Amino acid sequence: MTNTVQKLPARIIHAIIAENLSSDNIIYYDEHQGWVYKRFSDDLNNTSRHNLSEVQSSSLVQNARPLESLGPFGTQPTDVSVIIEPGEVIYRTKSFNMILSDLTQYTVVECLGQHAPLAQITLHGTARSVSYIPHDATHFCWVYPPIELSELCEKTKQTIDKKVAMGDLSNSFLAFGGFTYFRIDEYNNYIMLQANALVKADNGLVFHGPHEWQSAYTAHLAKSGRFQDVTVSSLIDLGIKYYCFINPNEKLCSSIEGQSDWAPARNGGFVYLYGSPGTPHPLDRYFSIADAPITEQISTQVMPFSLIRNPHITVEGSSSSLPPPSSNIDKDRFNCSICLDQTIQCILIPSNGGLESNIICRFSEQNQTVFWTGNFVTGNIEFNHSGNKKMKLKRIDVELIGRLAYKNIFADNTYKTTRNTRHMIFFSQRLNLNFSNAKSDFLLPRGNHKWPFRFFLNDSLPPTLKKRQYLDSFIYYFIQITFVRRDWYKRNIKKIIPIVVKYMSSPVDEMKVEAQEKNRKDVHLHMILHKSTIAVGNNVSFDIEIQNPKEVLINRISVTLAQYLKLGPAVHRRVDILNETLTTSNYFQNSHLHKNFHFFIPRTIPPTFSFHYPMKSKEQPIIVNYELHFEAHLSGFSTNIRLKLPLVITDHPQNN
């Protein structure tokens, strides 16, 4: 056993949580009383700090390296659902049951972990949009990785690492934590809306820092268990041991009497400690979230005619070995009009000169980029022509396009597998903005111009379908604006504006559906789904009834939400969105069981829909539908009972 601080096994942590021990207690062994606990005191703190500092301080300072920057990070919605009880710091989730099933001492796990206190959302506008924060969310909290993560076997850890490397968002949330968003209902309950994982990105959340951390404010956070083990390998390599998320405008208490409270982060931030919370380290730092996100890569914009010809350049005046002034190549030598220093040689290529940046698409509702089927997409196209000459155009087109992107996989004669992405247009509407005389060329004068547009989204159109993994197909929509030039040698001016389309489901009767079956051991399983239609962001409720006259051992009952994707020419797929074990049914051996269960439908999944091409088209339809699969796992060979029930998922808000 080493002298360093060791983490408690998960089963002990479960027991501590079950006893409702507060986090300001210290557990230790007394030779007369055995294992005891008492409330945290300065004497205990000073003793432990003295013992730990002797062991840790020398190696920490020598091997640690400073954390110089953080982010930017993108945030992406996941299928993870968590349960947070008001007033508690522990969350529960069943989303990781399958992932954590390889734990040494547990076959079924209800994951537990710690979260930061709930706080109001402070980001607005663009910062809120690029962070994928639900529009109706009012509160959020940072969720740390589950307690059981550190006790996983190496095989499971490697599996998680591989899935994270492949971009699996649920495993990223499991391994590193993430943000969870809520709204308050009329009963002041917090309703979970979405869980977002942090991913590496060139845009998204930006952090100010590093800022020096004031160690006097560490104890206040440590007593409430806010500091957690670092799980990111790049931070561990720097020597960082613990981290903590600070809420927006959170006031921290100082351990120094008389020192005022401190609110270090307006929009929240992260604190990183190189030693234990009781041992300050000179490299301890914190980073705060900036108000404005990075929405695109920052680059230096070089406008047209940024180069000026330098006719006075001579061989003697140049430090490089240039050809004689009489050479024709001198005609292609220019000075940069931005720095007015370097002489460069360039080849001039005709271009639009950044004219696409002068095209602006303004939708009728400000900042609206989400539209429902069965509705209109309306707005104005604005263009500022600042050139001295009139622009010669054939026409101006604006087109609303829907595309299906899918991987085409095939093998050649050598059995070498090839994958390429194909983009198939399944929907297109085009408008010509030259309303005065659409059949002839025209001249566009200098000045500001505005043209209205109006598209209709058919009721049958499929919704935007996001790409989840590398091989996944996806559906996307965009508006393409094209200024078609009259001169063949001049490139057309194009601009693309992406939009999100949501599917307005037709009203469906919320009828009850049920299924039942008996196996050869006379075990009768009866499933009842009270409403076969459910909106995302709500709980689906179902009843299980078991008749077990011979009292056969039922190991468990599992429920799976299966998504079936039939996306045109793409390979048909089944994706298991949720897979949970109904804990009350574990190792059941009674003669009868009748109980109600429910689980949460994530907001991130697409609704049930079906899109068919016109009758004469040979293209395959685009369909997404769902089923609930129930399986009773019994002892013995070929004794399991499997049932399926159809489930219609909509995007409509509805009462649960």
SSE layout and pairing:
Blueprint: H1 10-18, E1 25-30, E2 34-39, H2 42-63, E3 73-77, E4 83-84, E5 90-93, E6 111-114, E7 119-120, H3 125-130, E8 139-143, H4 154-165, H5 169-176, E9 178-184, E10 190-200, E11 207-212, H6 218-223, E12 228-229, H7 233-237, E13 242-246, E14 269-273, E15 285-289, E16 307-309, E17 333-336, E18 343-345, E19 359-363, E20 370-372, E21 376-385, E22 391-411, E23 417-432, E24 442-444, E25 447-456, E26 474-485, E27 493-502, E28 513-518, E29 524-529, E30 533-535, E31 539-547, E32 554-567, E33 573-581, E34 592-600, E35 609-611, E36 622-634, E37 641-650
Helix pairs in contact: 4-5
- Main beta-sheet strand count, sense and barrel state: 6 strands, mixed
Compute the number of strand runs: 37
Give the helix proportion (percent range).
Answer: 10-25%
Low-confidence stretches: 48-60, 102-109, 295-332, 336-342
Looking at the structure, the CATH topology of one domain is: Immunoglobulin-like
- Counting copies of identical and different chains, the oligomeric state is single chain
| Tertiary shape | flat
Q: How many helical stretches?
A: 7
Determine the strand fraction and express it as a percent band. 35-45%
Task: Give the CA-CA distance, first to last residue.
Answer: 53 Å
Rg estimate, integer Å: 31 Å
Q: Mean pLDDT, nearest integer?
A: 77
The chain-level structural class is mainly beta
Name of the CATH class of one domain: Mainly Beta
Task: Please identify, by name, the CATH architecture of one domain.
Answer: Sandwich
InterPro entries: Arrestin-like_C, Arrestin-like_N, Arrestin_C-like, Arrestin_domain-protein, Ig_E-set
GO biological process, one term: protein transport
Family: Belongs to the arrestin family.
GO cellular component, one term: cytoplasm
